[in-house]
Amino acid sequence: MxxxxxxxxxxxxxxxxxxxxxxxxxxxxxxxxxxxxxDYDRDIGTVVxxxxxxxxxxxxxHAPGEKLALVLDIDETALSNFPYMKTHDxxxxxxxxxxxxxxxxxxxxxxVREVFATAQRLGVAVFFITGxxxxxxxxxxxxxxxxxxxxxxxxxIMAPAGGPKLTSAQxxxxxxxxxxxxxxxxxxxxxxxxxxxxGGHAERPFKLPDPFYLTE
Length: 216
Hints:
With about 220 residues, the chain is α/β, with parallel strands linked by helices. The chain is about 50% helix and about 15% strand. Helix 7 (about 140-145) links the parallel strand 2 and strand 3 (about 155-160). The chain is globular, with a radius of gyration of 22 Å. About 30% of the residues are buried.
């Protein structure tokens, strides 16, 4: 009798539907393949082409006296942290991350650097709005942007250390609103996270792919 019950219970379990998430190693392998296969670069290129075309069109019909601006995020937008992520198997810790930023050696995402150059050529001011913290991350970030050909920006707006507990979306929206109050018209906002782009205060948002992490 006990053997029959055990067998019946085993059949019942075999028929259960589970909701197990995708295996972590398989997910990491998929991200690496997306990054290394060229698909990631192609997707970035598609978004960048749209952003450049819009900036050129919009700058060509700006009103007299209008102050045009482009907002760029930094991490996985202007600069790539993939060398750090690859070394740490997509993990993270404060000490090594802070050292990575301080070294200022993140490579530029080249197509986005072209967006930066396009804006500069057309007289559109470039503002970086980032989640990197003030004042700890400023020296390494400024060094990195200069080294990668993006040092001639209007302003680098960073997260204040010990500031109010805001989400990334709240803080970046407030930063764009503050630029508008200064008289800037943000014609394009480019970022890799939805939190870089939600909240308005930009004529057009452009979302780059980011399969690596999520910031809210």
